[in-house]
Automatic annotation (TrEMBL):
Domain of life of the organism encoding this protein: Eukaryota
Species name: Branchiostoma lanceolatum
Keywords, ordered alphabetically: ATP-binding, Cell cycle, Cell division, Centromere, Chromosome, Chromosome partition, Coiled coil, Cytoplasm, Cytoskeleton, Kinase, Kinetochore, Magnesium, Meiosis, Metal-binding, Microtubule, Mitosis, Nucleotide-binding, Nucleus, Phosphoprotein, Serine/threonine-protein kinase, Transferase
UniProt name for this protein: Serine/threonine-protein kinase Nek2
UniProt-listed InterPro entries: Kinase-like_dom_sf (IPR011009), NEK_Ser/Thr_kinase_NIMA (IPR051131), Prot_kinase_dom (IPR000719), Ser/Thr_kinase_AS (IPR008271)
C-alpha cells in the first residue's frame, strides 16, 4: 500500500487543541470520507513521550473492533517533525461533552442509555483485556473524554496514548499514569496494577454518567488520594436502579482482587441480556459472510483437489513416457540379442560344416592310404581285419596297427 501524503487530505476545521497536540477534521480526497487526524510535534517530545506515541500507533493498528476508534493511517512530516495519526471521525463527540451538556441542562441521562454505553465500553475493554494472542492491553486512561460517540450514539473507545501491553495474566504495570479522578487505589499507592485498574476507572466513569460528577472529588491530588484509598462515595441518584448502583459498587471496591473482571461484568443480568442480543445480531449479520467464507473455502478446496489431480495426471504422463522409453530400450536390446544370436548360430553352423568337411577329408585320406596298402599286397603287419568293421573304422584301425608296428621295429613294406 503506498504511503499517504498530506496532500491526500483536505483540512476542514480544528476540533480541539491540547497538550497532546491538535485534532482536526479532514476529508480524504480519493473518496470524500470524513476522518480526523491527531497532529503532534514529536520534535519537542521526550524519549518517553515518543515511546508512548509509537505505542499508541501500534496499538491502534492492532485493535480492530466496532466499539474502538478505527485507525486508518499515519503521515510523518520529517521536515516539520510532525506526525499525523488519521482515525475514524466520531460525530457524536465524547462522553465528557455529553455530561457537561446534561449538567448545564440540569437533567440526568436515561438509565437504559447508561446500560447501553456501559455494555459497549465493556465490549471494547474485552477486546483489550482478552486478546486472542494471549496479551492484555491496559488502557490506563479510561475517562469520559476518551470515550467517543458516533452518529448512532454508539461507543468508540479511543486515545490509547497511555496504553500498556501485559504479556500474560500475572504481569503488572508500575508506571504512575492516568487522570487522577479515575486512578485506582493501587495506582495512588504506587503499587503494581493490572487490568483491574481499568475496571476501577470504568466504575468511576459509569458513576459520573449517573451523577454527572466523579465519585471522588478533592481540592488537590493529596486529598484526592486519601479519598480514593478510603473508597467512600455517595450513592448514585435514587432514580437509578439498585442493580446499577450495585454493579458500580463492585467495580469501586478498593481491593482489586474483589473487583469483577470484564467477563464477570458481562454476566450481570442487564449486560448479559444485551450480550445475547448483540451476539444474535452479529450471528445474523455474520451468516452471509460466513456462508461466503465457506463457499470460498469450498472453491479453494475444489481448486486444490483439481490441482492435486492435475499433478497426479502429470505424474502419470511422466511415468507413461518413462515406461515407453524403457519398452523401446528393451525392444532395442531384444533386437540386438536376436542379431547376436543369429551371428552365433551362423558361426556354429559354419563350425559344424568345417568339422564335417574336416572329418570327410580325414576319412578320404585314410581310405586312400588303405587302398594304397591293399594294392601293394603286403599284409605282413596288418593281420586279419574284423569283418564287422566299417570302411571308416577299417581305415582308422589300419592306421593304428601301422603306427604300432613301427614302434616294435616292424619295417614298412614301402
Amino acid at each position: 500500500m503506498p504511503t499517504s501524503r498530506l496532500e491526500d487530505y483536505e483540512v476542514m476545521y480544528t476540533i480541539g487543541t491540547g497538550s497532546y497536540g491538535t485534532c482536526k477534521k479532514v476529508r480524504r480526497r480519493t473518496d470524500g470520507k470524513v476522518l480526523v487526524w491527531k497532529e503532534m510535534d514529536y520534535g519537542t517530545m521526550s524519549e518517553a513521550e515518543k515511546s508512548m506515541l509509537v505505542s499508541e500507533v501500534n496499538l491502534l493498528r492492532e485493535l480492530k473492533h466496532q466499539h474502538i476508534v478505527r485507525y486508518y493511517d499515519r503521515i510523518i512530516d520529517r521536515s516539520n517533525t510532525t506526525i499525523y495519526i488519521v482515525m475514524e471521525y466520531c460525530e457524536g463527540g465524547d462522553l465528557a461533552s455529553l455530561i457537561s451538556r446534561c449538567r448545564r441542562e440540569r437533567r440526568y441521562l436515561e438509565e437504559d442509555l447508561i446500560w447501553k454505553l456501559f455494555f459497549q465500553i465493556c465490549l471494547a475493554l474485552k477486546e483489550c483485556h482478552n486478546r486472542r494472542d494471549g496479551k492484555t492491553f491496559l488502557h490506563r486512561d479510561l475517562k469520559p473524554a476518551n470515550v467517543f460517540l458516533d452518529a448512532n450514539k454508539d461507543v468508540k473507545l479511543g486515545d490509547f496514548g497511555l496504553a500498556r501491553v501485559l504479556a500474560h495474566d500475572t504481569s503488572f504495570a508500575k508506571t504512575f499514569v492516568g487522570t487522577p479522578y479515575y486512578m485506582s487505589p493501587e495506582q495512588m499507592n504506587n503499587m503494581s496494577y493490572n487490568e483491574k485498574s481499568d475496571i476501577w476507572s470504568l466504575g468511576c466513569l459509569i458513576y459520573e454518567l449517573c451523577s454527572l460528577s466523579p465519585p471522588f472529588l478533592a481540592a488537590n491530588q493529596k486529598q484526592l488520594a486519601v479519598r480514593v484509598r478510603e473508597g467512600k462515595y455517595r450513592r448514585v441518584p435514587f432514580q437509578y436502579s439498585d442493580e446499577l448502583n450495585s454493579v458500580i459498587g463492585s467495580m469501586l471496591n478498593i481491593t482489586d482482587d474483589r473487583r469483577p473482571d470484564i467477563e464477570t461484568l458481562l454476566q450481570t443480568p442487564q449486560l448479559a441480556s444485551r450480550l445475547r442480543e448483540y451476539n444474535a445480531k452479529n450471528d445474523k449479520a455474520e451468516a452471509p459472510r460466513r456462508r461466503s467464507r465457506e463457499d470460498a473455502g469450498d472453491r479453494r478446496r475444489s481448486r486444490e483437489k483439481e490441482d492435486l489431480l492435475k499433478q497426479r495426471e502429470d505424474a502419470l504422463v511422466v511415468r507413461e513416457c518413462a515406461l515407453e522409453d524403457k519398452e523401446k530400450e528393451v525392444e532395442a536390446r531384444e533386437k540386438n540379442l536376436a542379431v547376436r544370436e543369429k551371428i552365433v548360430e551362423d558361426k556354429l553352423a559354419r563350425a559344424e560344416s568345417l568339422m564335417k568337411q574336416y572329418t570327410e577329408l580325414a576319412v578320404a585320406k585314410a581310405n586312400r592310404a588303405l587302398a594304397d596298402f591293399d594294392i601293394n599286397g603286403d599284409d605282413t603287419c596288418t593281420g586279419r581285419l574284423s569283418p564287422r568293421l566299417t570302411d571308416n573304422n577299417k581305415a582308422l584301425h589300419y592306421l593304428r596297427v601301422r603306427e604300432g608296428k613301427k614302434g616294435r621295429g616292424c619295417r614298412s613294406p614301402l
